[in-house]
Amino acid sequence: MQDHTRKACLKRLSRIEGQVRGLSRMLEDNRYCIDIVTQVAAVRAALKKVEEEVLRDHVAHCVEHAIRSGDADQQRQKVSELIEVLGKLKG
Fold first, then answer.
1. Do residues 5 and 13 touch, judged by C-beta distance below 8 A?
2. pLDDT, position 48
């Protein structure tokens, strides 16, 4: 993973960690259900951004490297991994 992507994702995950702690406090404080669900949706959206950033980096770095290498086995492996993970994200 490229360094700037790793740092950006770590920063985002720290914010998400704070959001999850906030959700726990909301439950402890018996806050309104819709407010809690709204915050859960915000955490899911933030995690999706991390997921997208990691995938973007993977394609730009790992998959591109496999394509440039000319190694057909490595190319097939990277594409296969990508298809598998995208299938999991879909379902």
1. no
2. 95
Q: How far is CA 31 from the centre of its chain?
A: 28
Provide the total of helices (H) and of strands (E) in the chain, helices listed first. 4, 0
Quickly count: other Cβ atoms within 10 Å of residue 37's Cβ. Answer: 10
Q: How large a percentage of the chain has pLDDT more than 90?
A: 92
Identify whether the C-beta of residue 46 lies closer than 8 Å to the C-beta of residue 16.
Answer: yes
User: pLDDT digit string (tens) for 19-51?
Assistant: 999 999 999 999 999 999 999 999 999 999 999
N-terminal to C-terminal alpha carbon distance within the chain: 25
